[in-house]
Amino acid sequence: MALTPDDVVTKQFQHVRFKEGFDPDEVDDFLDEIVVEWRKALAENEELKAKLAAYESGSAPAPARAAEPVAAPAPSPVPAAAEGAPSGAASAGIIELAQRLHDEHVAEGRAQRDQLIADAKSQAAQIVSEAESRGRDEVAKLDRERAQLETRISELRNFERDYRAQLRSYIEGQLRDLETTASSSGSTPVSAIGL
Length: 195
Description:
Shape: rod-shaped
Strand content: under 5%
Helix content: over 70%
Order of helices and strands: HHHHH
C-alpha cells in the first residue's frame, strides 16, 4: 500500500473499552506501515541520488547519449531532483507527522497524569477532612459520655454517703433503744416478760 501524508493525517484509530486512548496494537501496526513506506522512500531517494551522481559524472548509459544530438546539453539534474523531492518531502512530512502525533500523545498522557494526580490529591484531602471531622465528633461524644459518667459517679458517691449516714443513725438509734430497754428491764426476769 502506498502511504500518503493524507493517509497519515486522516487515519482514525478505534477507541479501546475500559481505558482511555487508542488501541495500542492498531497504533503500532499503523506506525509499522509508516516505517515501511518511509524506508521505501529513503531507498528510492538514495537510488535517485546515485542516478543523479552518475549523470553528473558523465557515466550515463551509451544508448541514451547516442540518441541525443551532439549539440544537446547533458540531461539536467532538475528532473531527477524533482522526482526525488516529492519522495523526500513525503518522508519529511511523515516524520513531521509522526513527531507531531508522538508529541500530542505525550501531551495527552501528561495531561491525564496531572488530572489523575489532582483528583487523587483532592480525594485524599476529602478523606482526611472527613476523618478529622469524624474524629472530632467521636471525641466530643466521648467527652459528653465522660461528663455523664462523672455526674453519675458523683450522684452514687453522694447516695452512698447519705445511705451510710442514715444506716449509722438507724443502727445507733436501735442500739440506744436496746440499751434503754435493757436498763429499764434489767431487774425483770425473762419469764416475766413473756418470752
